[in-house]
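Title: Prediction job returns without error message
Component: structure pipeline
Severity: low
Priority: P3
Assignee: unassigned

Description:
Job completed but the reporter wants confirmation the result is attached to the right record. Sequence as submitted:
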Amino acid sequence: MAEADDKFISIALASAVAAARQAGDMALAMQSRLQDIRFKGEKDIVTEADYACDASIRKALRHAFPDHNLVTEEAADVQQGSDCTWYVDPIDGTVNYSRGFPLWGVSIGMRRGDHMAAGAIYLPALNELYTATRGGGAFVNGRALKTSAVDKLGDAIISHGDFNVGSNEAERRRLNVKNLRARLRTAEALQRMKCLGTAVLEGAYVAAGRMDAYCMLSFKPWDVAVTSLLVSEAGGRVTHLDGSAFDVEGVDALFSNGTLHAELLDLLGWTNPTGG
C-alpha cells in the first residue's frame, strides 16, 4: 500500500513539473509580445498568457487525472467528488509579468484528503524549479531546501503582499489599513521589509532561507497551495494570522522559518484581540 502511494505521489509530482515547465516556458516566450492586457477587476489584470497557460495546464492534468477535482485561477472549478484536488495558478504575479519584471511563476499542486501532497513552482525567468512532497522534503533545481536559522527579529527579513488587493473599494481600503499596520510593526522590529509582488515566489523564498517570513492578509487557494507545502517541508511553519492551523481554503497566512513564528504572530497582533 505504501509503495503504491509513493508511486502515485511520484506520478503526481512529475505531472505537476511537466505541466509547470510547459506553461512557464510558453509564458516566458510570450512576455515581450503581449497584445491583450485587460482588467478583470478594478485593480486586477489578466493577459492572454494567463489564459493560454491555464488552458495548457488544465488539459495536461485532465488527461493525466480525469477523475480529480481541478481549481484554477482563470477558469471554472471542476468538482468531481474526488479525494484529490489540484490547485493551479498559471501565472502568479501577473502585474509583474505584464510589466516585464522577472518575478512571477507558475504553481501547480495536488491536495489529497486534508493535506497538500505534492507540488511544483516554476520561476521561468529565474530558471528555478521548486518541488515538494509531503514527508519527502522540498527542493529547488534538485537541491534540498532548508528555512533560515535566523533567531532574532532584529536580524530578520519579512515580505508583505501588495496593497490594493480586493474585489471592491471597501475591501481594498480595509486590507490596505491592515497592511499598513503590519508593515509599520515589522519595519520597526525587523532588519528589512520587502514586497515582491508574487505569492508563490515569496513563499518559495522563505522555504529557501532567502527571507525569514512572508505575511499574507488575503489569498486564494492557488496562491498558497504549493508554498505552504514547500515551507513546511523545508522546516518552516505556516499558520493563519490568529495562530490557528493553516488551511488552503482560509483567508490569511504567515509563512516563517519556524523559529520566529510565535514572535512574529505576536508582533503582527492578530493573536491579540485588541491588536489587529
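Comment from assignee: result matches the submitted record. DSSP finds seven helices and 14 strands in the chain.
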